[in-house]
Amino acid sequence: MLRYRLMVGVVLVALVAGLIAGCAQPATPQVVTVKETVVVEKEVPVEKEVVKTVVVEKVVTPTPAPKGGELTYGLTLIVSDIDPHSGASSELGIFLTSVYDPLVWRDQEGNFHPGLAKKWEISEDGKVYTFYLRDDVKFHDGTPFNAQAVKFNFDRITNPNFKSNKAKYMMGPYDHTEVVDDYTVKVYFKEPYAPFLDSVSQVYLAIASPKALQEWGDEKYREHQVGTGPFMMAEYVAKDHIVLVKNPDYNWAPEFMMHQGPAYLDKITFRFYPDAATRAPALESGEVQIMGEIPPVDANRLMADPRFVIYPVEIPGQSLQFFINTSKPPTDDLRVRQALLYGLDREAIINGIFRALSPIAHGPLGRKTPGYTSQVEGMYPFDLEKAKQLLADAGWKDTNGDGILDKGGQDLALNTILMTWGYLPEIGTAMQGLYRQLGVKLETQVLTYPAALEAASKNEHHLIPMAISSSDPDILSSYFHSRNIEKGFSWSRFPDPELDQWLDEGARTTDWNKRAELYAKAQVRIMEQALIIPIRDYVNLNGASAKVKGLRYSLQGWFPWLYDVYIEQ
């Protein structure tokens, strides 16, 4: 609207009060009424049509790059059983973590957050966990998530007829589950079970669609898995690939994710690369955008290439360790076991095979594991002379000059079982050479995992390796409690009532400080008795294209959170 001035005449009438005097007196001045016109200026708004040429400066508002794309992820193990309730491998969790949501999330610092359960309560006696569930979640098949679904899954895992491995162990002394109402469920245990909250944060206790489980049955469900997660299983071709696609309805991500709503990626394809030599080339050629367990020598090269990023993720749980069998000679002698610890230059192994990209392990738990104690550090520094003296004290001498110690006509030879994963054949070769300096003969055989388990169950070994991930120190019970000697994984076969008591109390108490104290005692005892030879804290060297953004790994180390990931255009 424009303004311009308009001259407006306004008649101002001035009224002058007065009376007209009488006309009889002409000499007297007359009072008259005068009309005076006064002109004033006033501004008034008017609209006027004008034609103007306006030059507008161009303003560019940054438009966020679209976050999406398709990703190919390289797995390092051909997983045969990908049902989270029956399978035990870490590899299955790499892709199933995107298909399922846990009841409770755990962030990278170890804090618990609401998941499918909005909140939870633990009874004072530690035997009852009450979960209050979200009421706005649906499975990928459109059926509602509710308390009945939780009960259905937990009953499936603990059913004696269902061949569960890791998941059943993670349920501890489970008794039963009670549906309180549609969105409240109580889980009862026969005795206090402190690790359960950590258990329900992991994919092995994933809540699957009861409808899908019933429709497909235990055998076929692995090919048709239905969860509530940000990605849905679209295709499974055994030993070849797995395809996930975005769940467009996903809207219940945990608070510590970097965004809300559906995931960024449209599609993820997982392919298998069990041959370590093929992993870096697949990444460098663009065949995959993320690859797990890059060989250390390749990781060092890729770290110097700006096209790639290496994510070294330390895995909590049991370090890579060799169990020493205490139930058969010569390793039934504590001096021999301790000599094996003092006499092994573990730093040489770490530098030679792992290019210093893995920390040396000092005890049964990796240092990233909650409850790890530094008291085990420095207990067995490399000391070849001390190792030789311990063996001499135990009566072992080289009587025939062949470089191998002997006693009673028997060489100091140890049957060592190796497996194909984790550079164990290379580690075995290195140990053979290093122990030769000590006068110990290492007889090695590389077996498949099932064959190795069978050999251990038959007590055929002196040394056998294992590393297993866990974010709770209760994992020690599986491998060192006496009840697991005959039918379990306690391969050092060392019955110790006091150690059993500490492990049992650690599982029962909900006081974290008390738990840490008990597990510290257990770790020190295991090393005092030389039940294992710790080699390295496991580090997963993940390689990725530099265009992959938002990649993070869970506390358990193996499992990527692909929900926030996108490909930079």
Q: What is the assembly state of the chains in this entry?
A: single chain
Integer-rounded radius of gyration: 38 Å
Helix content: 10-25%
What coarse outline follows from CA principal-axis ratios? globular
Number of strands: 26
Distance between the termini: 48 Å
Q: Which regions are unreliable across 5 or more consecutive residues at pLDDT < 50?
A: 1-58
Structural class: alpha+beta
Which percent range describes the beta-strand content? 15-25%
Mean pLDDT: 89
Total of DSSP H or I helical runs spanning 4+ residues: 15
Biggest sheet architecture: 7 strands, mixed
Structural account:
With 569 residues, this protein is of the alpha+beta class. 24% of the residues lie in helices and 25% in strands. The strands form nine sheets. Strands 10-11-12-3-13-22-14 form a seven-stranded mixed sheet, with helices on both faces. The protein has a four-stranded antiparallel sheet with strand order 6-7-9-8, covered by helices on one side. The chain is globular and about 75 Å long. The two termini are 48 Å apart.
